[in-house]
Each structure stands twice: as C-alpha cells, then as structure tokens.
Write a sequence for this structure.
C-alpha cells in the first residue's frame, strides 16, 4: 500500500499511533464486537485520524485481525503442562494457570481473552485462522495429556468431550466473569480470589478425569503423586 498523502498521514506528534490503535481496537472490539465498532470510534479512541487505520492495517478488518492475532503466543501456555513427567494434578494446574494469567495481568490481557471468546460467539471467520495458532495446539496438548494419564492408545469421542469440558471450565470463568460476581459477590474480588479459582478448577478437572478413568475401568497413571489436595 502506498503511504498516505501529507494531509492523511498520521502526524508525527501522535506517538506510536499503531500501538495505540491496536490497544483501542482490543478494548472496543472486546466490548462491542466487530460489527458495532466504527472506524471513527477506533480513531477517536486512539487519538489518530481515520486514515491511520488504512495506513497501518489496510482497513477495519485488518485492524481486527491484528488485535485478534498479534497478542497470541501459546508457547508459554503449552510449556506449563505438557511435560509427560508431571503428575496429573500438576499438569492440570499448569493448564489452568494459562487461563487465569490474563486475570492476574490486568485489563489489557483480560480484554484480549474476552475478544477471543467474543469471536467464538460472534464469528467473523477469524476463529478458523486463529485456531491453528492458539486454540488447537492447547486442545491437542490437553488430549495428549489425558491419553497419557488414562493409558489410552487412541482418541475417541468421550476423550474429546472430556477435554472440552475441562477447557469449558476455564472459558466460563472469563465469559461469565461479571455474571459470577453478580451471583456470588466477592467471588472474583476477595483476597486470593484467583488462587482460589485455580484450586477449584484443578479439583473439578481432577474429579472429571477420575470419573472417566473409573468409567473405563482404567487406573490413572501415577495416582499417588498428586500435589493438589
């Protein structure tokens, strides 16, 4: 794309216009979705002229794609739980640590997660493109973890459903964050709330895996090495 003319080019004193646009996009798209967010709103929130969107991102769709994909880096999340030597409870603790990390990091990280979840509910088609980069590797790593601890040679529908249920516990915590607080005031804001959520998620996931192991008549691998009470 050719640079904008002098009248359209973002002014030099606007600072890092691209970064501000990206941050404004994450916030507005997370709260309002793609369709309900205008380019004028995005430009005003970032304190740039509208032409800056096309200059840096091509168009609103390009800005949305950047807001959705650029913050993604599943490498650290995978490293938390994929070591096959980890006891199951420790692996699940690492898995949920990735879900809860945005809640520890503040609004911007939490908004990134909210944007990803909104895209699942109000798809613009980016979920398919983003799946291979973020969601799918986490899902496949969790399946491998469950197969290992259940001693299974192959995947089946029940194992897929188990993995989706375990993932769903973490997703619901973000999707229902405000609803959870309204239903149970203080559940998200009391001292140590995130750590309490973490322990609860791990216990619930362990119970689900144990129930599946019992249903299959297969003892869990290394059951005595659990570190979560």
């Amino acid at each position: 794309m050719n640079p904008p003319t002098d009248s359209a080019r973002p002014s030099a004193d606007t600072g890092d216009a691209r970064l501000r646009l990206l941050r404004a996009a994450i916030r507005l798209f997370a709260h309002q979705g793609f369709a309900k967010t205008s380019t004028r709103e995005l430009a005003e929130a970032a304190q740039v002229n509208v032409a800056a969107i096309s200059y840096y991102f091509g168009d609103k769709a390009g800005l949305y794609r950047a807001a959705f994909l650029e913050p993604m880096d599943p490498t650290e999340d995978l490293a938390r739980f994929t070591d096959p030597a980890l006891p199951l409870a420790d692996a699940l603790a690492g898995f949920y640590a990735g879900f809860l990390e945005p809640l520890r990091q503040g609004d911007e990280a939490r908004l990134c997660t909210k944007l990803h979840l909104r895209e699942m509910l109000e798809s613009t088609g980016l979920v398919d493109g983003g799946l291979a980069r973020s969601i799918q590797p986490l899902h496949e790593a969790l399946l491998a973890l469950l197969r290992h601890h259940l001693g299974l040679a192959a995947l089946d529908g029940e194992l897929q459903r188990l993995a989706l249920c375990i993932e769903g516990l973490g997703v619901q915590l973000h999707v229902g964050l405000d609803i959870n607080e309204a239903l149970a005031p203080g559940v998200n804001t009391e001292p140590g709330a995130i750590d309490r959520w973490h322990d609860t998620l791990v216990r619930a996931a362990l119970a689900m895996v144990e129930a599946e192991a019992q249903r299959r008549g297969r003892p869990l691998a290394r059951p005595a090495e659990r570190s979560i009470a």
Q: What stands out?
A: The chain has two domains: 12-69, 75-219. Residues 12-69 form a domain with the Arc Repressor Mutant, subunit A fold (CATH 1.10.10.60). Residues 9 and 52 are 7 Å apart (CA to CA).
